[in-house]
Amino acid sequence: MDASQTGIQTQTQTQTRFRIKILLTSLSAMVAETSTFPIDLTKTRIQLHGESQPLSSSTPSTNAFRVASEIVREQGVLGLYKGLSPAIIRHLFYTPIRIVGYENLRNFVSSDGSLSLSSKALVGGISGVIAQVVASPADLVKVRMQADGRIVSRGLQPRYKGPFDALKKIVAMEGFGGLWKGVFPNVQRAFLVNMGELACYDHAKRFVISNQISDDNIYAHTLASIMSGLSATALSCPADVVKTRMMNQAGGKGGNVMYKNSYDCLVKTVKIEGLTALWKGFFPTWARLGPWQFVFWVSYEKFRQIAGLSSF
Questions:
Q1: In 3-state terms, what secondary structure has residue 35?
Q2: Which ranges does the UniProt record give for the Solcar repeats (predicted)?
C-alpha cells in the first residue's frame, strides 16, 4: 500500500470516527435529557416564580417539591415532560457540537490532552458558545413550552400547541430573529456551563486516574461528573435565570416587553428581588446537572468503549 492509499484510508477512518462520535453524543444526550427533564422543568418554573415582584410582596415562597407537586396535580405526570420534544431536538445539535468540538479543539492544541485547567476552560467555553448559537431556537421553544404550564394552571389556553406551532408563531409575531431571543444571555450561560462542565470533567477524570484513585471506569466518571456539575451550576446559574426570563417574554415587533435586554433583566431582577434571585433554581439546576452528566458521561464513555473508540 503506497503513501497516497494510506493517507486516504487514514482520512476515511478519521471521518468514520467523527460520525460515530456525533451519533453517540446524540444518543447519550437523548437518554440523559429524558431521564432528567422533569427536574429541568421544575427549575424553569422556580426561576420564573415571583418575576418582578418585590420580596416584601405577598407572593408565597416556593421550592422544588412544591412546584413539582403542583405540576403533577394540575397536568398529570406527563405535565413533567412539557417541552421535552424541543429539548431533544436542541440536544441533537447542541451536544454533538460542544462535546466533539471540545475534544477536537483539545487534541488540536495538545495531541496528548495535557492542557492546563485554564486552557481546557477556554476550549470548553468556545465550543459551548458555537453549539449554543446553533441550538438557541430550539432552546427558546423549550423554555416557552415549559412556561406555558403556568398559563394552563390559571385556566387559560396555552400559547403553543407543540414545538412546530411555537416556531411558526414566534416567527410570525416576532420575526425570524425572534428565534434567537435571549441568545446573548444564552451564549454567556453556555460559555460558563461548558467552561465548568467540560474542563472540570476532563481535568477531574484525569486527576482521579493519574492519582490511582480509580481506573478509567464508572467510578472515575461518576466522581468527575459530580465535580463538573457543581462547578457548572455555580458559574452559570445567574446567566441561566436571565436567559430563562428573557426567552419567556413574548413581545411582538415594537411591543412592550418587561426587559429591554439581558443587562436590563439582570439589573431589574437584583433591584426588585434581591441578589439571591440570580441563584433561583440553584439546587434543582445542580440536581439536574449532576444526574444529567452522570447518565450522559457514563453512557457516552460506555458507547465509545463498545464502538472501539478511546476514552474521552
A1: helix
A2: 20-108, 115-207, 216-306
